[in-house]
Automatic annotation (TrEMBL):
Keyword Ribosomal protein appears in the UniProt entry: no
Assembly mode: Consists of a catalytic RNA component (M1 or rnpB) and a protein subunit.
Protein name: Ribonuclease P protein component
GO biological process: tRNA 5'-leader removal
Reaction equations catalysed: Endonucleolytic cleavage of RNA, removing 5'-extranucleotides from tRNA precursor
Domain of life: Bacteria
A Pfam match: Ribonuclease_P
Protein role: RNaseP catalyzes the removal of the 5'-leader sequence from pre-tRNA to produce the mature 5'-terminus. It can also cleave other RNA substrates such as 4.5S RNA. The protein component plays an auxiliary but essential role in vivo by binding to the 5'-leader sequence and broadening the substrate specificity of the ribozyme.
Stretches the record annotates as Disordered: 117-142
Amino acid sequence: MLPTENRLRRREDFATAVRRGRRAGRPLLVVHLRSRTDPHASEGAVPPTRAGFVVSKAVGNAVVRNRVKRRLRPLMRERLCKLPAGSLVVVRALPGAGEADHTELVRDLDAALRKLLKGSPRSAASGDSPRDPGREPGGRAP
């Protein structure tokens, strides 16, 4: 289980991480990371890193979806200390995650986080950035 202060719960926080963060896709998971500080935290305090999970019906029935979340929570808890303070992380399970074993989930989660934390300019040019460089903010073409 994730500690209460490390849980991502609000819809707008999920949306911020997904829309404004960087993403790394793997065969079983897509991880979104927003490395900004939490706008809801009090000033002067270092906000904790928070994580949330999205497991859709495409992964399986309720039993399978809950099993996937139960398996991902402790994996993410072990990795929170490696992320910048105040980060928002959303882990989205893809349909294959329901049948995957522990080692496959660990491999994909670690590879996605490694890619996001590397932060090389090459990864931004390869399409990991949610923004389209040919568009202005607001969705208009230049």
